[in-house]
């Protein structure tokens, strides 16, 4: 893999387009790793909803375990694995909240059922049985019947502002290609480095 892209976002966009055109069920799925204030790590799958030169965006309930960890320790790493293409991308950096306008716009684009679910779910909190959640969902559905559903104040998005983006391509006998882009701050130019597999 030659370092022939000066901009990793351009390379990511190319790879992402190829992933969308492949047999992958959902190329936006990424493993998101966070660490709480006490540095206990956690990882889960989330969906990327936007990427550009500002960063990579996902949305969540702000009372969720991941959101609490990000508020305590605003750093994260996301990993995409696109198996049909034998490719992996890792994005690491600091995390910031998206603007209210961005969150409002994305929430308005969601299916109505997903909007209702965002209000009904007490994400990451214990519940005694599934019927408890279903009851909350039924109540919220009746409350907003025939109305536009506003974005809950406890629901928003986060942007990973990348300081490192690594592109990995599988090759036989574990002789993989690895190319990493790094920068100290968003205003700095990207530096590239090939890595041993």
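^ structure tokens above, recovered residues below v
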């Amino acid at each position: 893999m030659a370092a022939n892209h000066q901009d990793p976002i351009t390379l990511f966009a190319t790879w992402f387009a190829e992933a969308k055109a492949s047999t992958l069920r959902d190329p936006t799925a990424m493993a998101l790793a966070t660490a709480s204030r006490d540095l206990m790590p956690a990882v889960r799958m989330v969906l990327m909803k936007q990427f550009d030169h500002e960063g990579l965006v996902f949305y969540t309930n702000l009372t969720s375990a991941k959101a609490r960890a990000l508020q305590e320790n605003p750093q994260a790493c996301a990993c995409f694995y696109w198996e049909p293409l034998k490719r992996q991308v890792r994005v690491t950096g600091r995390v910031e909240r998206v603007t209210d306008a961005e969150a409002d716009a994305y929430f308005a684009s969601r299916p109505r059922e997903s909007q209702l679910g965002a209000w009904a779910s007490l994400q990451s909190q214990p519940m005694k049985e599934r019927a408890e959640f279903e009851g909350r969902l039924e109540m919220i559905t009746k409350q907003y019947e025939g109305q536009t559903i506003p974005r809950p104040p406890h629901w928003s998005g986060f942007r990973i502002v990348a300081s490192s983006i690594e592109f990995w391509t599988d090759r036989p006998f574990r002789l993989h290609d690895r190319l990493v882009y790094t920068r100290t701050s968003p205003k700095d130019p990207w530096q590239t480095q090939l890595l041993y597999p």
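The beta strands are 29-35, 41-47, 50-52, 55-61, 75-82, 87-97, 155-169, 177-182, 191-194.
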